[in-house]
Specification:
Length: 151
Amino acid sequence: MKSEPDVFSIDDLIQRGVENWDGVRNYQARNFMRDHMKVGAQVLFYHSNTAQPGIYGLARVTGAPVPDKTSIDIGHKGFDPKASVDNPIWCMVEVGQGVKFFKPVLLSQIRNDPTLSEMLVARKGQRLSIQPVSQAEFRQVLKLAGYKHDQ
DNA sequence: GCCAACGTTGGC
DNA sequence: GCCAACGTTGGC
């Protein structure tokens, strides 16, 4: 899951405990969240649009997808004129159990690692804010972050 | 701040 | 359905 650290960082998540991942306004990202983010699933927390983009920590899906009500909140940044009470269009999951890596796994590292170089996030122009990660990729990220064993 | 890449919108 | 225009993302 990508986030701009100036807006919401892994530190913010740790401080908050849990957070509703609202504001997703891309259908592909929504579908992935809705169909594949099971409660308990682990998440890589990526800092984008920052001097040192990369994966800065871990989190876990703590709440199943529910309607993102900010889509029907007139005046809210996430308001979508196409959404309605009956069809809010957008959904969100709850994320929690944030853990910060001792050392981040930077985008430059990801691109240079044979196991990770095919990750979506390594692709130029890839803007999807929620991306699938394979088990091998996940393990390799943990390894690069300094974890000796899988969790 | 620049700008390439992308998704969405809307005229036709 | 096409595609130009536009707004946004995000690395650099």
